[in-house]
Amino acid sequence: MATRTQTVAEICAQARSAARGLATLETAVKDAALEAIAAALEARVVEILEANAGDLEDGRAAGLDAALLDRLALDEQRVEQMAVGVRDVLALPDPVGEELDARTLPNGLSLRKVRVPLGVVAIIYEARPNVTVDASALAIKSGNAVVLRGSSTASRSNAVLARVIAEAGDAAGLPEGSVQLLAGGERSELIELARSEGLVDLVIPRGGEALKATLKEHARVPVIYAAAGNCHVYVDASADPDMARRVAFNAKVQRPGVCNSSETLLVHADAAPAILPALLGEFHDAGVELRTDARARALAGSLADEIVDATEEDWATEYLGLTMAVRVVDSLEEAIDHVNRYGTGHSEAIVTEADQAARDFVEGVDAACVYVNASTRFTDGGEFGMGAEMGNSTQKLHARGPIGLRELTTYKYVMHGTGQIRE
Amino acid sequence: MATRTQTVAEICAQARSAARGLATLETAVKDAALEAIAAALEARVVEILEANAGDLEDGRAAGLDAALLDRLALDEQRVEQMAVGVRDVLALPDPVGEELDARTLPNGLSLRKVRVPLGVVAIIYEARPNVTVDASALAIKSGNAVVLRGSSTASRSNAVLARVIAEAGDAAGLPEGSVQLLAGGERSELIELARSEGLVDLVIPRGGEALKATLKEHARVPVIYAAAGNCHVYVDASADPDMARRVAFNAKVQRPGVCNSSETLLVHADAAPAILPALLGEFHDAGVELRTDARARALAGSLADEIVDATEEDWATEYLGLTMAVRVVDSLEEAIDHVNRYGTGHSEAIVTEADQAARDFVEGVDAACVYVNASTRFTDGGEFGMGAEMGNSTQKLHARGPIGLRELTTYKYVMHGTGQIRE
């Protein structure tokens, strides 16, 4: 069993050992384990909710705010969603063994480039207990051992979830130690985890800037960082006004606290008179605080007095809330320059009816996900058909965008010869 | 022109600007530029050799050893090989725009995952001037701007090569600043380069441990490190004795100073009596100093007195010369454990006639390249049909093994919709 209190070194060594077995496990065994885990989550829902109730009680006593408590809270439906998530991952193709290249070299050597698991993946995350389940399912399917390090606010929920997963997985034939929870909330443990060279192959932080700063200072194992999401919607001169308003509104308002929501609206000067007066009113009615340049304010009618002048800092800010910056630009190029200057490479959208403008925006914007005529809110492993996600990368190396099964693999060149030597 | 003395910041800013143009350049334009560069190398061979003669003269005056002078030296044939290398890269498919995935999501959004260049790639390398050409060709074909930082020993050669490349490239329509040489030999410049966040997307060091240590301490941009190559040949119980001797000898002796040469020979106890006596003699005759365990020494006959006892340190050492560690193991598992414990994840070989042993070794060994019945010496971008290589990675993230065109790219999700919003 994997959730006793153990040292970081013990946990990582067990994970490394489990990883060796996991790497060569048949797809059918991994899938059977995932089905067993999904079934166990359903069967043990009462136990899970009891543990969660304890976390919630502690959280309320500690004065956690309503949003955090909501992210922490589980009910029967949310547990059922976890099981569904596991089965979604189960249904995806096994990335391990996928042939990325196969050739015979002139000297007769057969070259195959084959996907293999990374080994041991550690994930560090905050309140949401469903990450415990998503991360475990993705790790198992991709043949990786996983070390989970949740937040102390969710300690009881995570402990029972990790226990349910490990017990069901062990019984279904996963190597012992495949899924392990690092129970302690100590910062020193986090640092030790991130310095476990040779034991941990990748750390994925899902948390705030303080966590990232700690890892940047201390980590010795590879880390995939996700920058904040300073995302934009650009309304091109040729945009359909109704679509533009719908997309811009959705990208900002539908769930403003997440990284793929948009922070700045850019509108081409030719489209602004037809779009901004109504759209600024809609934002205002939805409780959005507006920070705009002078040209946008001039189109705000009676709202103009309530609008704050946007500063350089506003263009660079991820509000993660009901605040939005608005700027009128004179050209597509100006929009692209703005996005590349202030954006964080997460998700960027253009609304346009012009194919050339769409192409130029897609090619010119340097971001993980670029949308034409759709909301930025779709950047998500689940939405992308990846079952779930370990996180969302804004870096360019290894993984960009949602981190799913393939992103948890590396590859190996397998060369078969008949005694070839180099002359 | 790109080889005047400029500040690191100026060079990186020009490279960033060039990268934007390079990213969307047609394949035909890039290929025409590469052909122009190959032709210019041929046409300007006298100028190149003159510069090289100056470097060689300085090198001899500074007392550089023969091996270093040989790596530095150019002649007509080596310059012609550079041109051939450029045309080899030209002939490869353009990685940019390659579709890695394409699906329509249930909500009608079209998802495309498309290869795009990284942007600005910096390479830091030592004596060999051909790296200037190889790196430039790979960068151009993959749509990246490149910042070259060679060693001061090759400063004249690199300056003229970079000038030839930049002039031919500019004339053929590459954005100005696509290929730039960081001329200064100052360590502070190296550090500034490695801290140019937002300007440089990747640094690839090709040099010794001191360079890597400097980067580990100072780099803020992503670096792909290559560990040393502590490579092994394992002779299985079922190995063909002649093939085993041929492969083991080649892997050690053909070019012992390079990272894909082998350092330790592991021999199954059942195969050792038939193989080691003759093979140890061959190594000895070739001038290889042998460091073995007791069982190997017992099979060394009259050589036994000249054999040094291998220590724990020998198993962990990359000799990069005519020294070899030899160990007899009792099983395939013991060989795999030895390789995973002491190896650096570079290139590992098994010689065997047993399919199951080959499979177990390939699956069990954690390395970039695993060979069955072939020498480890083939790990090389050129040998792998990648035209050339920017370096050779032993890390698992992003690139593993030779760094060629694909490894110099990232990807972008391009989503086309009809106004989709998230509910």
Protein model, in words:
The structure is a homodimer of 423-residue chains. Chain A contains 15 helices and 16 strands. With 423 residues, chain A is of the alpha/beta class. The first copy, chain A, folds into 2 domains: 8-224 and 403-416, Aldehyde Dehydrogenase, Chain A, domain 1; 231-378, 3-Layer(aba) Sandwich (Aldehyde Dehydrogenase, Chain A, domain 2), CATH 3.40.309. In chain A, the strands form 4 sheets. In chain A, strands 10-9-11-8-7-12-13 form a 7-stranded parallel β-sheet, with helices on both faces. The first copy, chain A, has a 4-stranded parallel β-sheet with strand order 5-4-3-6, with helices on both faces. In chain A, helix 12 links the parallel strand 9 (289-292) and strand 10 (308-309). In chain A, helix 2 runs antiparallel to helix 5, helix 3 runs antiparallel to helix 7 and helix 14 runs parallel beside helix 15 (355-364). The longest helix of chain A has 17 residues, at 27-43. The radius of gyration of chain A is 24 Å and the shape is globular. Chains A and B meet through helix 10, helix 15, strand 13 and strand 16 of A and helix 10, helix 15, strand 13 and strand 16 of B.
What's the arrangement of secondary structure elements?
The structure is a homodimer of 423-residue chains.
Chain A: H1 8-23, H2 27-43, H3 45-61, H4 66-72, H5 76-91, E1 99-104, E2 110-117, E3 120-125, H6 130-141, E4 145-149, H7 155-171, E5 179-181, H8 187-194, E6 202-206, H9 209-218, E7 231-235, H10 241-253, E8 262-268, H11 272-285, E9 289-292, H12 294-298, E10 308-309, H13 312-315, E11 323-329, H14 332-342, E12 347-351, H15 355-364, E13 369-374, E14 392-393, E15 401-402, E16 409-420
Parallel strand pairs in A: 3-4, 3-6, 4-5, 7-8, 7-12, 8-11, 9-10, 9-11, 12-13
Antiparallel strand pairs in A: 1-2, 2-16, 14-15
